[in-house]
Prior knowledge:
Blueprint: E1 2-3, E2 9-10, H1 37-66, H2 71-98, H3 101-124, H4 130-153, H5 155-158, H6 164-193, H7 195-215, H8 230-242, H9 245-273, H10 280-308, H11 310-330, H12 334-362, H13 368-397, H14 399-420, E3 433-434, E4 450-457, H15 463-480, E5 482-489, E6 496-503, H16 506-514, H17 519-529, E7 539-544, H18 563-567
Antiparallel strand pairs: 1-7, 2-3, 4-6, 4-7, 5-6
Helix pairs in contact: 1-2, 1-6, 1-7, 2-4, 2-8, 2-9, 2-13, 3-4, 3-7, 4-13, 6-7, 6-10, 6-12, 9-11, 9-12, 9-13, 9-14, 10-12, 11-12, 11-14, 13-14, 15-17
InterPro entries: MFS_dom, MFS_trans_sf, TM_effector
Pfam family, one: MFS_3
Membrane topology: Multi-pass membrane protein
Amino acid sequence: xxTVGGTGEAESGAGPGPSETxxxxxxxxxxxxxxxxxxxALWIAQLVANTGTWMQIVGAQWLMGDLGGGAxxxxxxxxxxxxxxxxxxxxxxxxxxxxxxxxxxLVSQAITFTGAAALAALTATGVTxxxxxxxxSALMAVGQAFSTPAFQAIQPELVxxxxxxxxxxLNGANGNLARAVGPALGGVLxxxxxxxxxxxxxxxxxxGVIAVLFAWRRPPDHRPLGAEYIxxxxxxxxxxxxxxxxxxxxxxxxxxxxxxxSGMWALLPALARGPLGLGAGGYGTLLGAVGLGAIAGAxxxxxxxxxxxxxxxxxxxxxxxxxxxAVIGTVGNLAVVIAALFLSGMTWIAVLSTLGASSLLLxxxxxxxxxxxxxxxxxxxxxxxxxLVWGAVAGHTGLAAAFLLPAAALVLSTPVGLxxxxxxxxxxxxxxxxxxxxxxxxxASHEGPVLVVIxxxxxxxxxxxxxxxxxxxxxxxxxxxxxxxxxxxxxxxxDVFVETFTVATAYEHxxxxxxxxxxxxxxxxxxxxxxxxxxTRPHVRHxxxxxAALPGPGAEGPELxxxxxxLRPR
Length: 570
């Protein structure tokens, strides 16, 4: 029992903060996150690892061609590196929220190292086949699946909240600097020593990340109710994503862009080998142009972001990327293709860093890794399926059509999609806050389902505004654990509204009280509270489903009370 809005107690933040003092540089500076020792060390280690990964990608795609693979088989290399992420990233995200993220990252890096080392050894001995190449590429992707949500989720622990957009840009520049250097190094090594050398250096590149993570003394997670079970954590993450429309807009933009934009990445090796007539070194140069463009984009995007806003940046960058993709696939002039690849790198990082920073700012600590898993699911799934589709198009109609079709679709879909599902532009405070009234002291965690009934007294003139204010409150209840939610108006007393929601177990409801509330959720509830009748407070009741209240066949026993009888004035 109780009333809504009792304590209004706010917690200190959305999880462990950075271990060092705030950046004393210019606010909004691109370099501010690098002044933090742990972020800087991990950033450098990631740069080495990303460089090795791009060397491995070039080697794998080139080796597939040497093993007799055509355009479709070469495109399958990208599918092998993304499809495992598509299949495993959701449970991996749940593990990132219920396990120590540092330990999970160490295990995932060990898996990736094992796959890279095995591929290097097998290729050096000359026994690698197309199937083995795809299988070991997929094993490395398994390690990536378990590391990506956790790595993204720890970013707010490494930098301040105000530095998250800059951290997203720096991480994007990291990957793209590696894309500029890695393919060129990979092409040189392939020419000098063969693909096995690129695979061996890729395996060695993960040792730096493992060393930094091993040295990190991450504070223990604060979980008053202990860790969740994996199946419960997966369901909670899915429920959160379904009930978070702002985050859903980010996911929609991500999957649309990834699906159509994947055509260039999947088919660029075939374009280099075929119409452009390039060798491994030339292919590395093409990828290097994309990476250099992305680095240039990292410097220009902060100024553009202030002027244009998120929706305008994503729309203009996606359309520009599509135009560059059409140029790359249809113009046979190498200089023009390199220039178009440079510009495509700028637009690529503009879209992805904007979407990535939005994701981090929209998610609370308790579900950050598992919700970011859906972001990766949208991105990697779009890439994996897109690579298959555009590879098949190239096999049937030629490379030019496989570049032009996704480019045209991206131009048509981006403005329409952003009009129908715009990205959020306001600031949402997702720090933890306890705004629920205290639950009954005798609420046992094994009991359930739990029915929460809240009676609100609202004057008729405020009824419409109250119903509108309660819709986002209902979404907040679902995000934090409610399986069903409803708002009813008393037919006999029009001043009374009854809110009901069910939670699967008392354990889940206790998590709503102690772990999952945010300042944003509290603000939504306060907007509804402002419309209640003066001098009244909502009245809360907790009801537990009891099978003991159900009489057996032919046996006498207490009747199960209906919801109507529970709400009837007594």
